[in-house]
Amino acid sequence: MYHTIFEVGKKVVDAIETTQQEPIERAAELIGEAFVKGHKFFVTGSGHSHTVAEEFYGRAGGLACVTPILTPELTLTDHPTKSSQLERLDGYATILVNLYDIKAGDVVLIASNSGRNAYPVEMALEAKKRGASVIAITSRKHSEACTSRAKSGKKLMEVADVVIDNCGMLGDSSLTVEGIAAPLLPTSSIANAFIAQAITVLAAVYIRDAGLEPPVFISLNVMGEDNKNDEYFKKYARMY
Fold first, then answer.
1. Whole-prediction pTM
2. What is the CB-side half-sphere exposure of residue 147 using CA atoms within 13 A?
3. Fold of 22-236
4. Which residue ranges make up each domain of the chain?
5. Each residue's pLDDT tens digit, 123-158
6. Looking at residues 217-227, what average pLDDT do you find?
7. What confidence tier does 240 reach under pLDDT thresholds 50, 70, 90?
């Protein structure tokens, strides 16, 4: 069983590598281009998908030019089902699009495994309405098997400009174990982390190739490096 767990995880990562190169490279290009032209890169998700924003934001080896839309209501910090209820609420994403002042030329990356709820769909539609480009990280298999809960009747993968499939199963959990009724081993977190880091590296390379220095955070836990990130925090850290 121990080795089976790792086989499942590696199979998902391998599937992403072999099938998602084009959308991942396109996503990185959009983010790099936005930086070069002085626009912003936003990232958001709800429930466990909010961890994609944390994967992109404020970590060593990550780009400093990231604005996460991480309101507590969309995370699991207050209550395990609060975000599940709020992500089905019409109008909430529009409030955040206005609050964060998403504009033409910006890029918004939205993570949602099912892509069916109001929040990710509305976020995508409202961002595009303002002229921003939208990148989706979602499970095509899950999304294709369900109906939309959004007022528009759309799903995230139907409205995003770039769609990256996390290659997960319907319901996310990917391992059936004898004697246990529910499947185990959700793979979206594994997949999303690899996708986020692939995009980050490729976007940094795009910025470098454009003749600019990519703003990349370094670890504050490396001796003698305490002040290296100060200029990035001053320039890019969100002030909300």
1. 0.94
2. 3
3. Rossmann fold (3.40.50)
4. 22-236
5. 999 999 999 999 999 999 999 999 998 889 899 999
6. 76
7. very low
